[in-house]
Amino acid sequence: CSSCEYTCVGSGNLKKHLLSHNVIKPFNCLKCEYACTLRGSFERHLLIHTGEKPFKCTKCDYACTRISNLKRHLLNHSGEKPFQCTLCEFACKERKRLMKHLLIHNEKPLKCTLCNYSCKESGSLKKHLLNHMGEKLIKSPSCEDSGKLKTHVLSHTGEKPFNCTVCKYSCTVRGSLKKHLLIHTGEKPFKCTKCEYACTGIGNLKRHLLTHTEEKPFNCT
């Protein structure tokens, strides 16, 4: 996605995701600021607040909020490995493991921007870049961003080490994860001093304050 950090394997999933960036989001949660364009997404979100886990395993105590998670879990009981490599006998339970395996058969697609080094895994590229640059503040030769190396290198490797334990969200910056978690906790730390409005982001609060000042900072050119 060109607007956020979302990635997927199918164009259909991307098209569905892009709807989340539309201005009109008719399904609004009454307990937090979550809003979306699809009823199914809204119903799944509500499970966060109710704590309900409607999809239950018949062989153990496992329960979850998504049918896809239950299907993956059931593979632990059946031993089935539906994702098979067409080039060798490798088979696994998850698509992402198969995609990682396929790199063995391919060339090394990840390349260092500072030397001729190339590798198959983002973790290896990250370690290599650290050898080049140490723990210094740098300016990358492949983009205009600067900052602490460990955080910046992730923008090139595609690795997202900060993962939400409630949903599939992941990101490269700890601050982004903290902000995301507010969706699940319902906490709204940014409060208006002139009314009861509260929200999860400082940007939203600034926009809200304009309703009190009647200021209109954006002018048509």
UniProtKB/TrEMBL annotation:
Show the InterPro entries listed in the entry: Zinc_finger/UBP_domain, Znf-C2H2_CTCF, Znf_C2H2_sf, Znf_C2H2_type
Q: Where in the cell is it found?
A: Nucleus
The cellular component terms of Gene Ontology attached to this UniProt record, alphabetical and capped at eight, are: nucleus
Gene Ontology terms for molecular function:
DNA binding; zinc ion binding
What are the GO BP annotations of this UniProt entry?
A: positive regulation of transcription by RNA polymerase II; segmentation
Repeat listed as a keyword: yes
Main localisation:
nucleus
Q: Gene3D superfamilies attached here?
A: Classic Zinc Finger
Q: Which Pfam families does the record cross-reference, listed alphabetically?
A: zf-C2H2, zf-C2H2_16
Q: Keywords, A to Z?
A: Developmental protein, DNA-binding, Gap protein, Metal-binding, Nucleus, Repeat, Transcription, Transcription regulation, Zinc, Zinc-finger
The segment(s) forming the C2H2-type domain are 1-26, 27-54, 55-82, 110-137, 162-189, 190-217
Top-level taxonomic group: Eukaryota
Q: What does this protein do?
A: Gap class segmentation protein that controls development of head structures.
User: Its family?
Assistant: Belongs to the hunchback C2H2-type zinc-finger protein family.
Family annotation (PANTHER family): ZINC FINGER PROTEIN (PTHR24403), ZINC FINGER PROTEIN 845-LIKE (PTHR24403:SF109)
This chain belongs to which protein, by name?
Protein hunchback
Please name the source species: Graphocephala atropunctata
